[in-house]
Amino acid sequence: MNRGKPHLLALLVLGPILVTALDTCGSYGWKRIARTTALNPEAGAVELASNWVVGLPPFVERSRRIAARDLGMASREAVVEALARLGGLQVGWMPVDPLGFTNLARELLLRDRPRESLSMLTDALVRDPTSPSLHRLHAIVLLALGNHRGGLEELAIAEALAPGLRSPEVELTPEDHRWIRLEGLRLRRDFYPRRPTETAIALARELRVNGDRASARNILSEFEDHPEVRMELARWAIDEGNPQNAIELLAEITSWAAFPRSLRARAWAMAAVALDQDGDVAGALEAAHSALRLDPRSSTPYVTLAGLAQRRGDSAAALEHLRRAWGMAPADTRLLVRIAVVAEEAGKPADALLALGRAVEIEPESPDLVARLAALQLRTGRFTEAAVTLSHALDRFPTDPGLLRLAEKLQRDVGIR
Description:
This protein is mostly helical. Among the domains are: about 225-295, Tetratricopeptide repeat domain (Serine Threonine Protein Phosphatase 5, Tetratricopeptide repeat, Alpha Horseshoe), CATH 1.25.40.10; about 300-365, Tetratricopeptide repeat domain (Serine Threonine Protein Phosphatase 5, Tetratricopeptide repeat, Alpha Horseshoe); about 375-415, no CATH class. The protein has 22 helices and no strands. Helix 14 packs parallel to helix 16 and helix 19 (about 350-360) runs antiparallel to helix 20 (about 365-380).
């Protein structure tokens, strides 16, 4: 009757040891293969496709950390084999996780079998319907199969979930981009129901940019008592040359102490612009200083003061205000571009170069910022610096038209000299 007890005791003792050994082996194998993949993607892909340690549950669990881009430099054949094995293991050990289905879909796409990948992508999206990158990948497959409408709808969902996401990249016409942007904004209200005002303002802005002002105003009519909406409408009134309307819209916000100081400061700053447009220079300056007193740590009042100085033709004073704004918002690349423009107007190219150089450091993936820097270097006769800037930029953005035009200009300018 007691013969089974030694075996049971042995299992109780050996079980935890075996689990620990498997976890240690899987952890060590993961670290080694991850290191190999980082140094040599081809060798890493081969390991993923063939090494027995990849099949251990602890390794499969850690394999979530492997991204498709980590294998980007490996050969197509090696990546296919790696994704097939890894995806199969992930589906087996983690059936509620979308990662395995996604990797199997990628494997089928690399094998030029897009129609078969659709079922895998559908399974992945069932498990994670809020993944914008999955919706974009699904869109690529639908577009490749000729389902243009379905592809655009998937891209709109991705835009609603993560505005501005561009990975994986999809080639589209400007008209398709506009439709996706608008539809994404319309869908965003369903995905983010707790931010209806913010979504309505974003959608109204897009409609207005596209020329549909009536629809834009209709969108905001539901929220017309909200202070952010009133400020948006005041901004439109300024753009349309109706400063009195803007001043009226902002008066309630600036005068009501119950609103947050930062909100009132922004309203005063906007009122300064409207008053200046209305010809009340003294009132504009007082409004800007009211904004500064309410929120001295914000860049907005300084930017407003800079704008007032610019309209008076005082570039030096404008630059000084913008420098102070930069101190409050050191990572604002739009502010840095404005500093560069005003500094050049003020005859201080070194300050302009510094501002654009810092902007490029903050957003190295922006070819537009690099082009601005290179153009300024050319205008100020810094041809060697421009050549270095353009050389590095064209390595990263070889087809960017703005950079290519500047490279041609550099060749002409250097040839003339």
